[in-house]
Specification:
It contains no helices and 12 strands. By secondary structure, it is mainly beta. Strands 3, 4, 5, 6, 7, 8, 9, 10, 11 and 12 form a 10-stranded antiparallel sheet that branches. A two-stranded antiparallel ribbon has the order 1-2.
Length: 178
């Protein structure tokens, strides 16, 4: 609560929730969604970064050490209704990233690791230094379609510390209209 020129307590403003297009499963949108936990390793991250956001009021700022990963866990998620993993990434002043994206299945096994910086997965084919770019990766390419998964990871694949970058609006998306 705050006081407005001695009038008395006024409610603090709260952010307006983002619309959730039909069928989308948000993993991160201004905060980690209910049912998800941060299981990152070898990473310095801020899940409430307000310096530069794609949408809403917060994004994720992350710096990965060699082989480190930003990783989110949920006990069980059936991917059947979804066709795509989608998120927005910003280079935060430095272009390019050497990242894998992958899921873990219900047995804890890594599924297919895909290199993010390919034109078919990332707009423009490279993380831009000064712009948000949408990543949209088919779950079939990640070998995570129509199955139960428990964890999503975005991992360094260079074996060296990565420059800080930003992520926002991480979601699973159903089939796109024709």
């Amino acid at each position: 609560m705050r006081t407005f020129y001695g009038v008395g307590p006024m409610p603090s403003p709260t952010p307006t929730p983002l619309p959730n297009p039909a069928g989308r499963l948000v993993i991160y949108g201004d905060a980690l969604a209910s049912g998800w936990q941060d299981w990152s390793w070898g990473a310095t991250r801020n899940l409430a970064y307000t310096g530069l956001v794609y949408s809403g009021t917060r994004a994720i700022s992350v710096t990965l050490n060699a082989w480190g990963a930003l990783s989110f866990y949920t006990p069980s998620l059936q991917t059947g209704p979804y066709n795509w993993l989608e998120f927005y990434i910003h280079g935060n002043g430095t272009a390019g990233r050497n990242l894998w994206v992958f899921f873990y299945d219900a047995t804890g096994r890594e599924r297919v690791k895909l290199w993010l910086e390919e034109p078919r997965y990332l707009e423009g084919g490279v993380v831009a230094a000064d712009a948000w770019r949408r990543a949209r990766i088919p779950l079939a390419d990640l070998d995570a379609a129509n199955m139960t998964v428990t964890q999503l990871a975005i991992q360094d694949r260079s074996g060296a510390r990565q420059a800080p970058f930003l992520l926002d609006e991480i979601a699973l998306v159903p089939a796109l209209p024709p």
